[in-house]
Design brief:
With 381 residues, the chain is an all-alpha fold. The protein has a domain at 94-326. It has helices at 2-18, 32-61, 66-78, 81-105, 114-131, 137-166, 170-190, 224-241, 243-253, 255-260, 265-292, 303-313, 318-333, 335-342, 348-364. Helix 8 crosses helix 9. The longest helix has 30 residues, at 32-61.
């Protein structure tokens, strides 16, 4: 622990040296942590407001009322028990795919290949479920979960390997690997693993009914929501309350200081990518076991790409991912109602997500640059 503490001291000193004119937060600036937390909250909220304004202009250009649009979104996402359950069901995989982005981001890595890890995780889980069909349901589901997480971890972990060993940019590598994963998935589902009875929609054989994840008592929600919430909480504990998470944040904040102190930066990068990929692969497993019962094109639903937006909205905070996943899941759940009530296509919600994503990226350019939120010298106000 002493060595990690010294790393923190070196990182703080290096960070101050790299920012001329910056003032290290001293004991006299007791309100700095509160201002920093306020800035972290205001940035995504401001981005959402800007996105809402831009999207309102877009709706007015189409001759639609932004107020009516907002009311329909609310009814479709949260207006009834059915709508709320639909929103939460859509949020379940988003919790896990957002962690695929947020966990590597602790080391400064921008990994955007969660969609590929999800589809391969779902396919691997399906194969494991078929192979374990003779086992009791608990063991079969365990085998499916292990296969899904292993496939996702291996696929995104490969991004970390390419970054550490070959110096290939992780954003480019993960995006290319996502396309490769989807192409491989389509080839296997439409070829060697295809069920001959699936004529109109190529699919694998279905896992047995006994191995399906049933709904939670008294609801129509599957247990994947609880798994996603638990994963977010565990990730927050790992990142914020463990030596390993502290070392990862040091490496993400100042890579040079981390290497000078002998931290295993390469292993941390590969491990973070693998852990993030495991969460995305688990999301694919849950989609198969709880909803689709087989692997087919329905798995390629864009959950991996939506997870990127959620992670950035949450500023890579696992706890903040939970409300943001519900928000994005609710927007997606209201797509059908928008089509019926306002005559807008489902793709309208993708336009809204695009405005939100651009606004979030723009807000990042202002984060840490507003003087009022920054550390102050003794006697400063």
């Amino acid at each position: 622990m002493a060595s990690v503490t010294s790393v923190g001291e070196v990182a703080a000193g290096a960070g101050a040296a790299e920012a001329p004119g910056a003032v290290a937060p001293g004991r006299s600036d007791r309100w700095y942590p509160a201002r920093r937390a306020l800035e972290a909250a205001i940035a995504p909220l401001g981005a959402l407001l800007v996105a809402a304004a831009l999207f309102s202009v877009f709706l007015l250009a189409l001759g639609k009322s932004p107020v009516e649009f907002s009311m329909v979104i609310w009814r479709g996402a949260f207006g009834s028990l059915f709508s709320l359950q639909n929103t939460l069901a859509r949020a379940a995989p988003l919790l896990l795919t957002a962690l695929c982005v947020a966990v590597p981001a602790q080391l400064g890595l921008v990994v955007i290949g969660g969609e590929g890890a999800l589809v391969l995780g779902g396919l691997a889980a399906t194969c494991a479920g078929l192979a374990a069909s003779s086992l009791p349901p608990s063991l079969a589901l365990l085998a499916m979960a292990l296969a899904g997480t292993a496939a996702g971890a291996a696929w995104i972990g490969l991004t970390g390997v390419l970054r550490v060993w070959r110096g290939i940019n992780e954003t480019v590598a993960s995006l290319v690997l996502a396309y490769v994963a989807i192409a491989l998935f389509n080839h296997l589902v439409e070829g060697p693993l295809r069920d001959p009875a699936s004529l109109n929609k190529p699919s694998t054989y279905a896992i047995p009914d006994k191995d399906i994840l049933g709904p939670l008592p008294g609801t129509d929600l599957h247990p994947g929501l609880l798994v996603g919430v638990a994963a977010c909480i565990l990730c927050w504990v790992l990142i914020s309350r463990t030596t390993l998470g502290f070392a990862a944040r040091i490496a993400g904040g100042n890579l040079r200081a981390a290497r000078l102190q002998g931290l295993p930066v390469g292993a941390l990068m590969i491990g973070a990518c693998a852990l993030g990929g495991a969460f995305a692969g688990l999301a694919g497993m849950i989609e198969v076991a709880a909803i689709h019962q087989r692997a087919n094109a329905s798995l390629i639903a864009g959950y991996g790409y939506a997870g990127i937006l959620i992670a950035f909205l949450a500023r890579q905070n696992p706890l903040a991912i939970m409300p943001m996943a519900i928000l994005v899941g609710g927007i997606g759940a209201a797509g059908g109602l928008l089509q019926r009530r306002l005559g807008l296509p489902d793709a309208t919600v993708l336009v809204l997500q695009g405005f939100v994503f651009v606004s979030v990226l723009a807000s990042e350019t202002f984060f840490g640059r507003v003087a009022w939120f920054q550390p102050r010298a003794a006697g400063g106000r």
